[in-house]
Amino acid sequence: MPQVTLIFWFGAVSLVASFRLWGIYTYLRADQKTRERTFWGPIFWLGSLAGGIIWGAWPLIFYSAYSAENLLLISTIFAGMITISAANGGNYLPSFLSFSVPLVLPLAVAHLLSDKDSLALVGYLLLMFLVVNFMLEVRSNRQNRELISSQMENQILVESLAEEKQIAERAMIAKSRFLAAASHDLRQPLHAMGLFLVALRNKEKDPEKMRIIEDMSKSSEALNSLFNSLLDVSRLDAEIIEFNPEHVPASRLFDALRAQFEHQTSEKNITLCISAEDHVIFSDVVLLERVLRNLLSNAVQYTCSGSISLHCVDGDNGSKLITLTDTGMGIPAESVEDVFSEYYQLNNPARDRKKGLGLGLAIVRRLCELMDLPLEMESVEGRGTVFRVIVPGGDESEMVLQTPPLRGMEATGRRVLVIDDEPQVLQSMRYMLEGWGCEVLLAGSARDALRVLALSDIVPDIIISDYRLADNLNGVDAVAAIRESVNIPIKAIVVTGDTSPERLKQVKGADLQLLHKPVSPEELQNLVDKLFKESDIANESLLPGFKSAANQ
To answer: What dihedral do alpha carbons 412, 418, 423, 427 form, nearest 10°?
Structure first.
């Protein structure tokens, strides 16, 4: 065997191997954009072709130097190299062909042309082995392409879903902003209208005019109910609703619900049966009452005849089972989950606002999740619906006696500062508060409020401020400025039509009471009376110097 030829052959093998290793190393270190360029395929193909040619040239150079036994061993090694090439080249078919064909073809031809039958048979088997591996490689390549295609499609779907998620999140943010802006703009005149109606009702004695005022009040209350539904959703989104369970008799909730819905069911000739017996529950009274009120409101709305029943009975493991049954229109099986979605309504394609906004059951489910109360529903279309709420049982010995409702409040001589940039709201608040016996100070902005207090040398008992004010200030800033000016933590109420979650958290974090427009007179009166009492208690704890300043 010529030594020089062998050295040149080994040198060529080493050079090609180095070139191929360099290509692989460069590819792995390249960035994603460079990897996606098209020249990498030809580079790998040329490397494989060069390697196949150099290995395939061996029989032409050294074939006669080996015995038949050595040639058989070398043929086995070449067959193994075909197998390795097939395994590594499944993703790129030209790489397999460019290496395997020039590798095997010269050796197989040399075997076929030899004068030994055993070598000729091996040459034939090598060609057959190459063809079989080629067929397997074609199938493997097809499967790899399909797999890569599926992965790319999945990646496109993932990116599409991510994009759709971002669109949905942006839509939710836009909806929240729209509701906040629209509710403020619409609540402002509705708030003033409600206050004017209260003042007008207190002054008017003519029965005919009183009926007109009552009709106007009902329209105002209907709008207020729609806004309250939107408000409940915003409060749930803001996650600021607190869960305060207590031991209470079920009759306390049921009696209030009976008083609220008895007249409505009587007008529709529906039998209303509410029974709490002597059961005691452990839950948040306000939130649970809201859940049952929404369920009853839906039952009354969708029941035209028959009956509605609300019962509380003993459940498993000391719990109480509250069941609401109606003989209404029922819910189709395909809509059972949809009715718990926001803004979804059955049989209201015209979006008649007399039937609400479709938020009742959505609020029910979310409140039940907040209180961790299992909620079950069974419904048969045309026959009625049954709702079941499982509530923890309470302890009668832990019940707190309910204080009797307020008959009125002592407001004579109390000083109230009202801040609002809407003249109509200021005047309506003045009429109502003066009707309660309060002394009212009016201001259109935080600056006006400070000037009014400085000129009058008066410290108000409480402050009622709108959230949105002039001069790029808000009610929270105005109250803070006044408290700092008089150096007294005056009790304050912020009134807003903005239902955005951020606004709710901001006001709550400033130790202020929050009311949403339109404010009901009863709600405002109860809160004002509560703050008067809290202010008295706080004043008693102040130093004498502060007490005298507050009473000036």
So the answer is: -10
Other Cβ atoms closer than 10 A to 191? 29
Q: Are strands 280-283 and 246-249 parallel, antiparallel or unpaired?
A: antiparallel
The CB-side HSE value for 295 (13 A sphere, CA atoms) comes to 29
Q: In what order do the strands lie in the sheet with 415-419?
A: 439-443, 415-419, 462-466, 491-496, 513-516
Residues 6 or more apart whose Cβ sits within 8 Å of residue 219: none
- Cis preceding-peptide flag for 460 (omega within 30 of 0): no
Decide: helix, strand or coil at residue 308: strand
CA dihedral 171→172→176→179, nearest 10 degrees, is 60
In the block, tokens 């460019």 appear at: 98
* Residue that the structure tokens 């709702």 belong to: 387
Interhelix angle for 501-509 vs 475-486, to 10°?
10
pLDDT in tens, the chain (552 residues): 566 777 777 788 788 788 878 877 887 888 877 877 777 777 777 877 887 788 888 777 777 777 888 888 888 888 888 888 777 665 677 777 888 888 888 888 888 888 888 888 888 898 898 888 888 888 877 888 888 888 888 888 888 888 888 887 777 666 666 655 555 566 666 666 777 777 777 677 778 777 777 767 766 665 665 566 555 565 566 555 667 788 989 888 888 888 778 888 888 899 999 988 889 999 988 788 888 988 898 888 888 889 999 999 998 888 999 999 999 888 887 777 767 775 556 654 444 444 444 566 887 888 888 888 998 989 888 888 999 999 999 888 877 655 444 445 667 888 999 998 888 888 888 888 888 888 999 998 888 988 888 888 888 989 999 888 877 778 888 899 998 888 888 899 998 866 666 777 777 778 788 887 777 777 888 888 888 888 777 666 554 544 444 444
Query: Cβ atoms within 10 A of the Cβ of 105, count?
Result: 17
Tokens 């300043």: give the residue.
Answer: 549
Q: Which amino acid is at 468?
A: R
CA 100 to CA 134: how far, in whole Å? 9
The whole-angstrom separation of Cα 75 and Cα 119 is 9
Sheet of strand 271-275: strand arrangement: 271-275, 307-314, 320-326, 384-391, 375-380
Cα 141 from Cα 147, distance rounded (Å): 10
